[in-house]
Design goal:
Elements: H1 15-23, H2 28-31, E1 36-42, E2 46-47, E3 66-73, E4 78-86, E5 94-96, E6 98-103, E7 116-117, E8 126-128, E9 133-135, E10 139-143, E11 148-155, E12 163-165, E13 172-176, E14 189-191, E15 194-195, E16 197-204, E17 209-215, H3 217-220, H4 232-240, E18 245-251, H5 266-275, E19 280-286, H6 289-293, H7 308-324, E20 328-332, H8 352-367, E21 373-375, H9 377-381, E22 382-383, E23 386-390, H10 404-412, H11 416-420
Parallel strand pairs: 17-18, 17-19, 19-20, 20-21
Antiparallel strand pairs: 1-16, 2-12, 3-11, 3-13, 4-9, 4-10, 4-16, 5-8, 6-7, 6-11, 12-15, 13-14, 22-23
Helix pairs in contact: 4-10, 5-7, 7-8
Length: 423
């Protein structure tokens, strides 16, 4: 059987003409970098823990025919926005009756004219399967950099808050019925936790990047002033917005590198909370003090001690995984904690043996040469006359967490060029 092979007409053109055609410049529209979707705010999800744990969740048993309005300050702005909801730890579908986004006003109010309905695949209502996220359709809304937005969720059915973020440092408002479009939500109660809200994304200017702050309560901002956006990642976001860099807070109060309880351990959640974030360029790791100090307290009375070598092995795993994905990884030294929580039922959080482990870990972070860069937060906030303690001006009063001034000092000490690996 004879078969005739047909070549496309362009292949019969003279070679010089083909080369000339390939060398022609692309149209300007094809060359111009395009806007990209990037997270501008995140809150790492946690599973609700049992009532026998030392710290209460302060959550209701469930929401039912209620609206929850949650406020978040973004880092980068954009002209279009969308919201990521999370049913990460739910064991049944999460029903969303309605959802809206707006620029936030004072209290439970929104800015007039900024309210937009959120849809999911074109539908106003949605169901989020157990263990799944749900990304809304984009909406047109001019969101300035460092603006506050309000996300309102109507939960029509009995809905246990199985996926939440414990230490929001921001008031959320809860009211009866569908009040998602209300100019001011009529609140029956308030929360200082987040529920089901995982991220806010914007269509940012071309070249936008993200830095993730991956840590525990000192990144989550425990003891920072409520509703004031006074955490160190907030202050860093204010510095980096002009560089077209988003700052994402992936801190969880009580987080640990090696063990679960107030959220999954760092090795388990690193993919979801850091590496899977669109546009991530760098991550700052500030975590480990809870691994060292929980032992012998009501948080974990019978746990075995954690050695410096155990934490270092965990850090090495994070370093290897970040490098494999082309993400710059910056290590931050563990801050002082002598006297921590002595005036609370958590007495025993500090002792001399735990302090030795902290110093061993910090020596490795500073001098080990394994992180791409180091942020010496310990040196920034410690008292030079008593290095195991916070400088009084930076101490929140519990001797474990910075106050607002300490968080600002941490952010101001960061060189953006070192953070991003720029010359």
């Amino acid at each position: 059987m004879n078969a005739r092979i047909r070549f496309p007409a362009w292949s019969r053109l003279p070679a010089w003409l083909l080369v000339a055609a390939l060398a022609l410049p692309l149209p300007a529209a094809a060359r111009a970098p395009q806007p990209a979707w990037i997270p501008t705010w995140t809150a790492s999800p946690q599973p609700r823990w049992d009532g026998d744990f030392a710290l209460p969740t302060q959550l209701p048993y469930h929401f039912w025919n209620q609206t929850v309005r949650q406020v978040a300050r973004v880092s980068l702005g954009g002209r279009r926005v969308r919201v990521l909801l999370s049913n990460q730890y739910g064991d049944k579908p999460l029903k969303i009756g309605a959802a809206r986004i707006a620029l936030a006003g004072e209290g439970g109010a929104i800015v007039p004219g900024s309210d937009r309905a959120l849809t999911f695949g074109g539908r106003a209502a949605a169901t989020v399967p157990p263990g799944a996220p749900l990304l809304s359709d984009p909406v047109e809304l001019e969101v300035p950099a460092l603006a506050r937005v309000a996300v309102s969720l109507y939960l029509p059915e009995p809905t246990p808050p199985s996926t939440f973020h414990w230490d929001a440092r921001q008031t959320a408002y809860v009211g009866a019925g569908d009040q998602t479009a209300a100019p001011r939500l009529r609140a029956d109660s308030t929360l200082t936790a987040r529920v089901f809200l995982g991220a806010i994304q914007v269509e940012a200017a071309p070249g936008a990047r993200a830095v993730v702050a991956f840590g525990d309560s000192i990144t989550d901002g425990n003891m920072a002033t409520l509703d004031a956006d006074a955490r160190w990642p907030d202050a860093l976001a204010g510095r980096l917005a002009a560089r077209n860099v988003a700052v994402l807070n992936a801190g969880i109060s009580g987080a640990r590198v090696l063990r679960d309880k107030m959220g999954e351990n760092a090795l388990a959640r690193f993919e979801r909370d850091v590496l899977a974030q669109p546009g991530v360029a760098a991550v700052v790791v500030l975590m480990g003090i809870n691994d060292i100090a929980w032992r012998g307290t009501p948080l974990e009375p019978d746990a075995p001690p954690v050695a410096a070598e155990d934490l270092i092995a965990g850090y090495r795993q994070l370093i290897a995984r970040a490098r494999a994905r082309g993400v710059r990884i910056v290590g931050a030294t563990l801050t002082p904690f002598e006297g921590a929580l002595d005036a609370t039922p958590m007495r025993g959080y500090f002792d001399a043996g735990k302090e030795r482990v902290r110093r061993q870990v910090n020596a490795w972070i500073r001098d080990g040469g394994e992180f791409d860069a180091v942020l010496d937060f310990d040196a920034i906030v410690r008292d030079p006359a008593h290095p195991a303690r916070f400088l009084p001006a930076y101490d929140s009063g519990d001797h474990l967490h910075p106050g607002d001034a300490g968080y600002r000092a941490m952010a101001q000490a960061i060189d953006p060029r070192v953070l991003l690996g720029e010359d």
